[in-house]
Specification:
alpha+beta; single chain; OB fold (Dihydrolipoamide Acetyltransferase, E2P); 19 strands; Translation Initiation Factor IF3
């Protein structure tokens, strides 16, 4: 197997892709502002104890306090504690925290929580840990094109952000999020006859396991395979189990429910791709990339960005260093205007 890692750095973020035999297997991102937080170490402060479940809520500087399982550790409200992020915030829930911090971690005298002590895990190291790598391609200064675009990683990301996954046989998967779980519907398309439908469901099971890894979906997942009697559904479940064994995250396959739905649960770690690439931080970074790309294509252009107000607020606030870096590269100020969607226009 030939493995290539693609690294694309731009103001405010770095995007990464692992490509195995020409197919994108994993996508990661690291940003100066916002998620992912997985692996980061903070000096936090206990804001609420939950004796009934043996835990505490700890303020670490994010929008919501994280939850810490205390085990045998005794802490009181107001106490400072060093914690590591084990799972990113999800929905209305804060980050999941642990006391598993590096031994010998030095905390300066007088440090006051909330304070980040160590950055999140490096995505490049994470992707290298998946196996041997033949080549690393980076968009160093002087690159005419972004390797994230030319390698197919950008196209794969766009497809992974869509709920629809088309299958080679003509069928499809529809992957949608509810408040409680991820729902997956299998449509076998124009496949006729029990054997053809069975083969289409086999194809769906293999692709579903890949999509869980690629999209980094976590939590409960409910799958509705198409038109199978229980004995043949059992064979599909067995195939799905084999495919899920390749996952680096823990996956519990509960099997088929009495109504023929297949239930599983995948461990949460870093936020899923949809949360990482559809939020205002992602839109702000995409806007800066678009401005720089426009200037490369037309050096005389003075880019004007139309962005949702949430992204503009970030660029004028917490992400202002990224905006300043982009403007330094361009040699002039980027005009920001409010709009419903991202557009980069030449003035």
């Amino acid at each position: 197997m030939t493995v290539q890692l693609v690294v694309s750095a731009s103001p405010g973020e770095r995007r990464f892709a692992r490509i195995e035999d020409g197919r994108v297997a994993a996508i990661r991102v690291a940003r100066d502002q916002g998620a992912p937080y997985l692996g980061a170490v903070y000096l936090g402060r206990v804001v609420r104890l939950e004796p009934g479940i043996g835990g505490a809520f700890v303020e670490i500087g994010l929008s919501k306090p994280g939850f810490l399982n205390l085990g045998k550790r005794r802490l009181g409200e107001g106490d400072a504690v060093a914690v590591c992020v084990k799972a990113d915030p999800y929905g209305e829930k804060g980050a999941r925290l642990s006391l598993d911090v590096p031994q010998g971690l030095e905390i300066s005298e007088g440090a006051k929580p909330p304070l980040r002590l160590l950055p999140p895990a490096d995505p490049l190291i994470q992707l290298q840990a998946k196996g041997a790598v033949d080549e690393i391609v980076e968009n160093r200064p002087g690159f005419a094109q972004d390797p994230f675009e030319t390698s197919g990683a950008a196209e794969a990301l766009e497809e992974a952000l869509s709920p629809l996954v088309r299958l080679p046989s003509g069928g499809r998967l529809l992957i949608e999020r509810t408040a409680a779980l991820w729902a997956v519907d299998v449509d076998t398309g124009a496949q006729k006859g029990p054997d053809a439908r069975f083969r289409a469901n086999q194809e769906a099971a293999v692709e579903l396991a890949r999509q869980l890894r690629l999209r980094n979906l976590g939590g409960r997942i409910l799958v509705d395979f198409a038109g199978l009697p229980r004995n043949r559904l059992g064979k599909i479940v067995s195939l799905l189990k084999d495919e899920l064994a390749r996952d680096e995250m823990k996956v519990h396959l509960g099997g088929a429910t009495p109504l023929g739905l297949v239930e599983l649960a995948r461990e949460r770690g870093s936020a899923c791709l949809a949360d990482l690439f559809l939020g205002p931080e992602a839109v702000a970074c995409a806007g800066l990339r678009a401005a720089l790309s426009l200037a490369r294509a037309n050096p005389a252009a003075r880019p004007r960005l139309i962005l949702p107000m949430a992204a503009i607020d970030l660029l004028k606030g917490a992400m202002n260093p990224a905006l300043a870096l982009a403007e330094e590269r361009l040699g002039h100020v980027i005009v920001l205007e409010s709009g419903d969607k991202l557009e980069a226009l030449a003035q």
